Recover the amino acids of this structure.
């Protein structure tokens, strides 16, 4: 019902920046909260940042002050601006969206931060 496509991942040097983009399509009416999760090999999946339909945000402690989540409701798009990247940020990043009682996931985009 809702399709999410992430883009913007890649290889970056420590201290650099990337901006991830997630575009939603399909039944986008009444999409509520959106967010970003990440999962590194051998580690559990964790919530990186979330944003409500009203614009309220929350962040994992490990990324506070470095990452910024934002959304453009007119474009059905959510962004994750990542600054001062660290090797520990290396992971597959997944976009999520909630619509009514269901949650949707993107395919993921790889972010690799070299030391």
């Amino acid at each position: 019902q809702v399709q999410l496509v992430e883009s913007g991942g890649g290889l970056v040097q420590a201290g650099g920046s990337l901006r991830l983009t997630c575009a939603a399509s399909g039944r986008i009416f009444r999409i509520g909260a959106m967010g970003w999760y990440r999962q590194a090999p051998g580690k559990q999946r964790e919530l990186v940042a979330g944003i409500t339909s009203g614009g309220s945000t929350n962040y994992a402690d490990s990324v506070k002050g470095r990452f910024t989540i934002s959304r453009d409701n007119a474009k059905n798009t959510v962004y994750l601006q990542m600054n001062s990247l660290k090797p520990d940020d290396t992971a597959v990043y997944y976009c999520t969206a909630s619509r009514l009682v269901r949650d949707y996931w993107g395919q993921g985009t790889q972010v690799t931060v070299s030391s």
In short: The CA atoms of residues 60 and 80 lie 13 Å apart. The longest strand covers residues 18-26. DSSP finds no helices and eleven strands in the chain. The mean pLDDT is 96.
